[in-house]
Amino acid sequence: MVLQVNERHVIDTIGGVALGSNAASRAGSPARTVTAAMRAMERCGFVILRRSRLYRTAAFPAGSGPDFVNAVVTVSTTMGPRDALAALHEIEAAFGRRRHRRWAPRALDLDLLWLGDSVLPGRSEWQRWRKLAPERQRAEAPDELILPHPRIADRPFVLVPLAEAAPDWHHPVTGQTPADMIRSLPAGARGGPRAMSLSLANRPARR
Prior knowledge:
Elements: E1 3-5, E2 11-21, H1 30-42, E3 47-51, E4 55-57, E5 68-77, H2 81-94, E6 109-115, H3 123-130, H4 134-139, H5 156-165, H6 178-184, E7 194-195, H7 198-201
Helix pairs in contact: 5-6
């Protein structure tokens, strides 16, 4: 189900957001940053319905920086896709995110994975970005919102926590669940993300 009516009789839309960090922020370590960002989302128009554990994952592309801390949350919101994305970008900026270089280490990365059944800007353009060759992915970035996120099915660091936070979600284009997409990954990629213990997740940032 992608829509629900709240007590004020306003229609909420269900969506998913991926969180990642591999650099300290004003909140502290990457793990503390990710958990603080979840709280910030709840102050900015998102209701978190379910959240995954925190995972540690090698940076992508390989060698591009320190390990990431990743998580996925499912949310409800009355915002439309573009307003939701703008709110996420504002949260990133508040935690010190600077968009100066693609795939650089970052204090916070918030990706809108999907929102309701939206397919933006349309199925043909979505398919074009989904099929973009890896070498072109390094050089090209869309100048408009693409939903669902076109790289969901390629990224274990999204899929593994997504399978915890939204195991019953079906991709509005392919119909696949997170488990289906994990099974389609190359065998060597499925074990990448490692769940963090609570003690490690709460470790203070290094000075």
